[in-house]
Amino acid sequence: MIIRNLERAIRESSHIVCLLGISVSADCGCFNYRNLDNAYSVESKYGYSPEEILSANFFGTRTKAFYDFYRNEILSHLGEPLEPMPTLKKLENEHKVFSVITRSIYGLPMRAGLANHVDMHGTVYEYKCTHCGKEYGMDYVLHSQGIPFCSCGAPIRPKIVLAGEMIPNEMITASAGEVEKADTLLVLGCSLRSTLARYAVKYFEGSKIILINEEENYSDAIADLACHAKPGEVLPMIC
Ligand SMILES: [Zn+2]
After folding, report:
1. What is the pLDDT of residues 23-43, one digit of tens each?
2. What is the predicted pLDDT for the residue at 108?
3. How far, in Å, is the centroid of ligand 1 from the Cα of 62?
4. Is 169 exposed, middle or buried (0-12, 13-18, 19+ CB in 10 A)?
5. Is residue 125 part of a domain?
6. What is the model's pLDDT at position 34?
7. Mean pLDDT score across all residues of the chain
8. Ligand 1 centre from 149 Cα, in Å?
9. In this predicted model, what pLDDT tens digit does every residue of 111-155 receive, in sequence order?
10. CATH number of the domain where residue 220 is located
11. How far is the CA of 30 from the centre of ligand 1 (A)?
12. Which domain holds residue 66?
């Protein structure tokens, strides 16, 4: 029954904006540093929690340790753009999905070939020099060892938002602008309590919120349709 309702809701939507949550990245095999077990193993291996390591302060003061963790855990577990990513691409081709917004740093929308996406926290595919701002790609980091340095001699850093840093204004404006235009908000792999969803719902002026998330949450009541299963399993069935 819910599948049929979801199918109809997608069919009747003409401007879907998708919020891509952390569970989708985890299901795609990306390293989930918010997962408690992973956080525990990082702490016992490196002496710090992933949150501490992925902070501006840590990067500035223990750059080598930052890159040890970053290379071994993040860059070694980039995952693949598995479902629901190909189905989102299909919906984009059909002019149903207009934008994908995520806080995930693994660049899944880009890797799935989606044209329109807002990676609010940046991605691990882009780097810049901490001194002169020169930009670098991931290959440069993969082909270097220890701390990757710019030609000017300063360390380069991933263009991701670290703890203690603000989300760039243009990302906030871009994502709010996308959400405002949507008639349907498709929330995949996070609850409506998540930072991303709470933020987006504020700007949403459309008529339908569809939620597909394996874990139940009291905030699911805000959604017009909620389905508790993996987005990667459900979305291909309803599109
Ligand atoms: Zn430089």
Report:
1. 999 999 999 988 999 999 999
2. 98
3. 19
4. exposed
5. no
6. 86
7. 96
8. 8
9. 999 999 999 999 999 999 999 999 999 999 999 999 999 999 999
10. 3.40.50.1220
11. 29
12. 36-77+130-160
Radius of gyration of the chain (CA): 18
Q: In this predicted model, what pLDDT tens digit does every residue of 145-189 receive, in sequence order?
A: 999 999 999 999 999 999 999 999 999 999 999 999 999 999 999
Do 152 and 232 reside in the same domain of the chain? no
Please give the tally of structural domains in the chain: 2
Q: List the Cα angle 189/137/38 in 5-degree steps.
A: 40
* Residue 196 maps to a domain: yes
Residues with CB under 5 A from ligand 1 (ion): 129, 131-132, 134, 150, 152, 154
Using the mean position of ligand 1's atoms as its centre, give its distance from the Cα of residue 156 in Å: 7
Q: What SS3 state is found at 121?
A: coil
Q: Kindly give the distance from the C-alpha atom of residue 134 to the centroid of ligand 1, in angstroms, as a whole number.
A: 5
Cα 159 to ligand 1 centre (Å): 14
Helix axes 231-238, 85-93, angle to 10 degrees: 30
pLDDT in the model for residue 1: 81
Please give the distance, rounded to the nearest whole angstrom, from the Cα atom of residue 126 to the centre of ligand 1: 14
- Nearest-5° angle of CA 19, CA 238, CA 224? 55
Determine the distance separating the centroid of ligand 1 and the alpha carbon of 138, expressed in angstroms: 16
